[in-house]
Amino acid sequence: MVPRKRLAAVVALLLVGVALSQSFAVATSTSAIESTYQAEEVTADSPPGLVASHDSDVVNLDETVNETPQLREPVATAARTGRYDGDIEPEAYMTLSDVNEDAEFAVYDGRYYRFSLNVSGDPVRATIELDPTDWETVSAAASSPASNASADVREAIDEGTVTNSTFVVPGLYERGGAHYLVSPANPGEVIGNFLTIVGGFLFNPIGWAYTVAGLGLLGAFRIHGRARPLDRRTALLVVPGTLVAMWLATTLTNTGSLGMRYVLVPGIGAVTAFGLFAGFCIRRGSWKSLVGWSVALVAVVIAADAVAIGVVGTIFGALGLVVGWFGSLLLLPYGYALAADAEDEVEDGPGAVTAAELGEG
Predict the structure, then answer these.
(1) In sequence order, what are the beta bridge partners of 116?
(2) CA atoms within 13 A of residue 134's CA, in its CB half-sphere
(3) Residue 116 DSSP SS3
(4) Phi, psi (5° rounding) for residue 133?
(5) Res. 137: pLDDT tops 80
């Protein structure tokens, strides 16, 4: 007899899995990621900080100094004398390391400067060069022709705003001698949409693992009809079962990089699905099996990512292992609580005599 609470827990796992497996499709739907961008004409009278906040060719040194006060004196010296070349504090080094060294211009204290930066960590020092310039020089060098921009950018310039489901590259654009700064009307909205897509991408393989695990456990309940039906074979088969399910789904519905669709993302699902077997091994005390299969899975996932995507695949594959491990934590208690005893698994084997039959004798 299968306890209703355990059956309900497995059904809940299945429902959560189905919902999460659709998270990426929902996250990338048009209505879910719409953002509004605005276009504003910029002139010499416009605040330089506004331009620097939305154009990658112009560094906002005011924000940099405010973020790291240790840079106040080096930047002020460069603005006053044209150059600072000397030691900096470790905190200042960390901040300058994130600054775009390829940027041609900078803004500081309400003025435009030609900009040059070089930082080194051994010893910790920086060379900052600031040469005063004007808006005309910056706009001529930093603006991109609107005619070469995306249709969304051109629509924003024509209408003042544009709302769409794609990310628009903010920055300066030139048309008919006028310069326009295209930027998000609500930066938080764009960040939220980006996080929604990333979250959907990461939850999708976890959802598939939960779905396959839930179906496997329901099948085990039906076949064995007891409170703890999970045997070793079923616990292990959930891993390749998750891979097959994800491969079929991506073949039928998705497009894009083959390495991502068939290797990297399914690898996250496989690591997640392994949580059911891990819980089974912990219940049984099968530590050698747990360690051996864990090492084998990690090696196969990383090797597959490296072959399919290269060095980048190795890096993202390692991150995928972390995501999959966290996802597997929910399956761990299912594997532990529903693992069959060794004698039950033997009795269920081919030609075995069941406990009921022994009682009848």
Answers:
(1) 129
(2) 4
(3) strand
(4) -145, -175
(5) yes
Using CA atoms, how far apart are residues 301 and 276, in angstroms rounded to an integer?
A: 18
CA–CA gap between residue 200 and residue 207 (Å, rounded): 10
Quote the CA–CA distance of 229 and 236 in Å, as a whole number. 14
The residue written with tokens 């299969």 in the block is 293
**Greater pLDDT, 361 or 172:** 172
Residue pair 10/214 in contact (Cβ under 8 Å)? The answer is yes
Contacts of 187 (CB under 8 A, 6+ apart): none
| Cα distance between residue 135 and residue 141, in whole Å | 10
Name 262's Cβ contacts closer than 8 Å, sequence gap at least 6: 247, 250, 308
pLDDT-based confidence at residue 189 (cuts at 50, 70, 90): low
Q: Please, which pLDDT band fits residue 192 given cuts at 50, 70 and 90?
A: low
| Closest alpha carbon to 277 in 264, 287, 266, 267 | 287
Q: Which residue has the higher pLDDT, 198 or 41?
A: 41
Distance of CA 138 to the CA centre of its chain: 35
153, 264, 298 from 295: Cα distances, Å? 50, 18, 5
What the block records as the tokens of 120 is 């080194």
Comparing 39 with 350, the larger pLDDT belongs to 39
pLDDT in tens, 18-35: 888 887 666 555 444 567
Q: What is the pTM of this model?
A: 0.61
Q: State how far the Cα of 305 lies from the Cα of 201, in Å rounded to an integer.
A: 17
Is residue 173 classed as helix, strand or coil in its secondary structure?
strand
Helical ranges in the chain per DSSP H: 4-21, 23-27, 48-54, 61-67, 72-81, 90-97, 135-142, 151-159, 187-224, 232-253, 258-259, 265-284, 287-309, 311-328, 331-338, 342-347, 355-360
